[in-house]
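Per reviewer request, we include the raw input and output of the structure prediction for the construct analysed in the revised manuscript.
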Amino acid sequence: MGKSTPHKKEGKYRRKKEMGEKKKKENLLPWITAGKKTSKKEKLSSIFMLAIKYIFLCLAAGMLLYNDFRFGLCFLPGFLIYYNQWKKRENAEEKYRRMVAFRDALTSLAACLEAGYAMENAIVAAKRDLECLYSERSWICMEFAAMKRAVENSIPMEEVFRGFAVRSELEDAAGFAELYATAKRSGGDLLQIIRSTNTVVSDKAEVKREIRTILTAKQLECKVMRMIPPGILLYFQVFSPGFLDLLYRGVLGRGVMTILFLFYLALAWLMGRITEIEM
């Protein structure tokens, strides 16, 4: 009566196995999704602040161009264009920051491998080094923390680096993952692969830094030039209120202001294109 049958033992073993697999999947979930996107709260906060800024610019444009805030509401549909331009700049900045962080990670990994660490232990050591350079909530530290959890759950290093490459959306990270997988299968020199990848990434980061330094001065000049026409209108409104009354009254005056505003937008777009280099 008190003895358990083979069927009961098999059922207990199956339940334990299922629970173990479930726990393993739960532990892997942060590795799969780590560092891929910013939190929803931060994203909504950024969009809200951007919308407030755009509404203020629209009202200011309505006052400067037509001497009436209500005309600024006509520019509100342009928020989608404004948002897309802002998102494009943010993505470019984030990609550059990730490339620099990836370079620092490769440097740390190379130093750990030279000290005799296995790749699995080098991930843990590199995570500690990166936490000295970046905050624990930074993208690269969260990625290495997730990679550490993946290694602890016996995920092959090839898959760990491939997952990192997919989430980072970096071409150099994808190339490194493929080189590492090939070298692991054929018994290549892993340290040399990391060194060569680190050299390539460092050269790219240095070239981009020099380009950004050169363009910063020109972009600042363009910003000053874009502020001159609104500044002139503001000056006349404050110190000579009646000087522009002819342009603020009637269909003809407002039509001239609208044409001049479109011409101003075209020139601002052209200046932005001249000082914008895809890196």
